[in-house]
Specification:
binds zinc ion, six-stranded parallel beta sheet, alpha/beta, binds adenosine-5'-diphosphate, seven-stranded parallel beta sheet
Length: 705
Amino acid sequence: PGVMVRVPFGKGNRLITGYVIGTGNQPKLDAGRIKEIEGIVPGKVQAVGRMIELAAWMKNYYGSTMNQALKTVIPVKEKVRHQERKQVVLTVMPENAKEQAASFRRKHALARARLMEALAQRPVIALEEAKNELNVSTQSIRALEELGLVRIQSENIYRNPVANAEAGVQRLSLNRQQRENVDAFCADYDAGLHRIYLLHGITGSGKTLCYMEMIEHVVSRGRQAILLIPEIALTFQTVKRFYMRFGGKVSILHSRLSKGERYDQFMRAMNGEISIMIGPRSALFTPFPDIGLIVIDEEHEAAYKSEQSPKYHARETACHIAGQSGASVVLGSATPSMEAYFRALRGEYVLMELEHRAKECELPKVYTADMRQELKQGNRSMFSMQLQQMIADRLERQEQTMLFLNKRGYAGFISCRSCGHVMRCPHCDLSLTAHSNGRLMCHYCGYEQPQVSACPSCGSKYISGFRAGTQQVEALLHKMYPSARVLRMDMDTTGGKEGHEKILSAFADHRADILVGTQMIVKGHDFPAVTLVGVLAADMSLYSSDYQASERTFQLLVQAAGRAGRGSRQGEVVIQTYTPDSYSIRAAVSQDYKQFYREEIAFREAMGYPPVRSMLKISLSSENEEQLENGCALLKAQNKGQNQEQTECIGPVPDSVYKRNDYYNQTMYVKAPETEPLIAYKDRVEEYVRDNPAFRQITVQYDII
Ligand code: ADP
Ligand code: ZN
Ligand code: ZN
């Protein structure tokens, strides 16, 4: 696969070139319609060939059209206008430049002095920067040029977003556990063992330093590396460490690049000008000639899964690319996904651990506030007594507080504020969702029942959906602490990436005392003055009607807790909950991943959810409700007709948002012990749907979980 071949095409058998996307010995077409390949185009499999094979794999595995898959993996070719940029380059030694600067200062030629000082630090400066930021006139620069101290050069440059990196800053040396893991990796690599590693390291244990050492090892042996970081954590702060260490060998992809800029970066990778690409999910498709390593940081992040067809997951796709190219894969996280840890324990991945923080700072102290008790004592506000006191205390000491409202995947569950009881499906153990028709529904199996007015467990009338937003929290803070400076960050206040960074930098500069926000405030930001983190409603994400609800909750709580006490003072964390005994909350309080894993895997095992079993999700959507229902009924019937030994079908069931943008949505799940029977199942459904006029107005999408 990936090899370029010449084939006769069309009636005239015109010779064209194409790529092999797969091999087999059973023709899928009538043998009479198949022509011979004319010949192979000699040479190594090129990046493009590799990408085409990858697209074919994605199409088959995840179920999409070849066109969608190709669009995902092949960079868009667009005419790019290369900008001409001018630079000022130092032509003498830096020491000499310093002497010159001093002499200009004595002569009160301050602009010239400034430029020479800057050049002594950094020998190439953009002309624009010299003029605008250093405030040096064109005339002064010309004068320096005439003295032979600088040269002005213009060149056709790629629009490199990392133009001004300062390479070669002093290095940290690895601590013992870091060393052991990195050495083990390097030894395998040099022995030609290209494995998949799971680096499980607590927050602040120095995973990034390990990635850098591993990347350096691979790059020093002439191959290239890709590092994936979730888009939300891809801030200058995080990538700066890579610029400093690897300088111009690094390129960054992020969503603010134009298509042309992206294409440029891909071309530089293909031509061997760079050897390290850092970016979100799509950086996987960097066409490096010889990939040696793919690192996925924060491997558990949901953002690694594409929401569009092909609904690929970066983890599996990285493993496939690594298989193609003989590369290694390193997955890193403080809270590994169930999937990755399950595979590591089964021996499919090599488990590596970092159990201590790299710097001398202790993990934060975590407390739970039982909101049922608060209600009993007459406190009906969103803040527990303990949290109220701690906020006041921080304001007094001029330290910062982060308050986090956990709304991820929130889907209108019903719970009792007196006893914490949550309405659940009797068949699936997932929470029921309130619908506008006044009924409670399970989105997994379709079970429904009427809404309740009293708690079935304790009889309390305080049973309802949980409603609270960041805006209410902000208002309450203003009322309770009138002098506190409060910032709020959520979808409404951020106004794109820029607004997001503005708020974060205002908070980092201590221009506010309290930051209130949704999950976007807990990802990877480092605020040394934060010594208190409050999680206002830890349960909220626990009851989304999704089998991964506990996993997501645990990850968020551990990450949120990791925000406290990153500086010299120890941090404290308050987790407010109605269910302090649920295992995801208990494990988060003790910051114990393994405890969480043990309980969660038992639940997945008992209910037959991934990663213990594999699952195929089939989503059907149509503007025509009647046709959709008919289509769903046909699929059900078709399923009964098949001889299903290995697979189990659930649904189709209406989605929690049944009608979205005028489209009705239903979802069906198929479970099996392994992925293979599911792919075969998907192929059968695909074929059935393609040939059946009843599905003409229905869009069917597939997702392998
Ligand atoms: P993680 O990604 O595991 O949460 P980081 O890589 O961000 O942790 O490291 C946390 C902090 O510890 C960083 O400030 C980093 O510079 C520092 N650090 C990491 N390794 C070492 C080391 N070997 N010696 C000293 N400091 C280290
Ligand atoms: Zn109750
Ligand atoms: Zn159910």
